[in-house]
Write a structure and sequence with these properties.
Blueprint (H helix, E strand, L loop, with lengths): L1 H31 L3 H15 L6 H11 L5 H23 L1 H4 L8 E2 L2 E4 L1 H9 L4 E5 L7 H8 L4 E5 L5 H15 L1 E4 L4 H10 L3 E5 L8 E5 L2 E5 L2 H9 L2 E10 L3 E6 L15 H18 L14 H5 L1
Parallel strand pairs: 2-10, 3-6, 3-9, 4-5, 4-6
Antiparallel strand pairs: 1-2, 7-8, 9-10
Length: about 300
């Protein structure tokens, strides 16, 4: 009986994932028939309305309350709505990615995208060496590896596939078309990234995801566990580490910032300090989020408190 129920639950979950994926694909096909700016703006407006009614909105507001206790409830609600709008734009922009990357690297400014720190980008491209670029779920963070791949900077990006396997397959196909080399976040990923650095190439990592183990650090003054992967890779290959982020600007524009390489803290033995470096990463991401709070994905359970919120 238990075996039958398990199989039934699996088939039911599979059918649900398929149905959800088909709805998403239909919506994306409809968007393709609308001019880019109108389609993206329409999607954003719908998210403003629908987002607050989703199950995740409660977690969003709880996270905002803990991160910004000094802000009013009205201010936090406005940030939450901005976040839902940003997420909707991110999804819609996948449909029109070719129009977004009409970018001229000659002067760091062209089309809808400007690049700050273009000299660092060109140096990494024209003088190959192992390096790590880290970023966070801010703005349209997907544009960073897309621009890198389009203009010949060899970066292998680690990514976490969506839980829905049908959406994941479609997204993986789209990412491979525009983003160059990709490594799914699963068993063996660390070895794959190490192999990339071993050959003198670059690695891209998101460092603001929930992690159950790792270094005990703080984010917005609250305790979190931070993935030590970047620290271990940097320690083993003694390579440069660059912060980079995407900022969503008015009128459908973006600014990509590639900051100078950071000096990683070291312990008394001269080795890169895992806990101190993990905290450095959190501090950098926190500074980005505080500057543009509506562009970060607050529905992620970064502090691993969802079980407390819904029990």
């Amino acid at each position: 009986m238990k075996r039958f129920l398990s199989r039934y639950a699996f088939k039911l979950r599979k059918a649900k994932n398929w149905l959800v994926a088909q709805i998403i694909f239909v919506i994306l096909r409809i968007l393709r028939r609308i001019p880019a700016r109108k389609a993206i703006r329409f999607t954003e407006k719908m998210a403003y309305l629908i987002g607050p009614w989703t199950a995740r909105h409660k977690l969003v507001l709880y996270n905002l309350e803990r991160a910004f206790p000094e802000k009013s409830e009205k201010e936090r609600e406005a940030i939450a709505r901005d976040m839902w709008g940003n997420m909707a734009r991110l999804a819609a922009e996948y449909v029109f990615v070719e129009e977004l990357i009409d970018h001229d690297l000659a002067n760091g400014d062209g089309g809808r995208i400007e690049v700050e720190g273009i000299e660092r980008f060109l140096d990494l491209r024209d003088n190959p060496r192992p390096f790590i670029v880290f970023t966070a779920h801010t703005g349209n963070f997907e544009l960073l590896p897309i621009i890198a791949a389009k203009y010949g900077l060899d970066v292998t990006a680690l990514f976490r596939p969506p839980n829905n396997p049908y959406v994941a397959q479609k997204l993986m196909s789209a990412r491979r078309t525009h983003m160059g080399h990709l490594v799914p976040s699963q068993v063996g990923a660390a070895w794959s990234l190490a192999g990339v650095l071993e050959t003198g190439k670059g690695v891209g990592l998101l460092v603001d995801q929930k992690f159950h183990k790792g270094a005990l650090t703080k984010f917005f003054g609250l305790k979190v566990r931070t993935n030590p992967l970047l620290v271990k890779l940097a320690r083993n290959y003694d390579c440069e580490v660059y912060p980079a982020r995407s900022i969503r600007l008015p009128n459908g524009r973006f600014r990509l910032e590639i900051e100078p390489a950071v000096e990683l803290p070291r312990n008394e033995n001269g080795q890169i300090d895992v806990a101190a470096t993990a905290q450095l990463l959190n501090d950098k991401v926190e500074s980005w989020v505080r500057e543009y709070p509506g562009q970060w994905q607050w529905f992620h359970d970064r502090w691993n408190i969802k079980h407390k919120l819904y029990k």
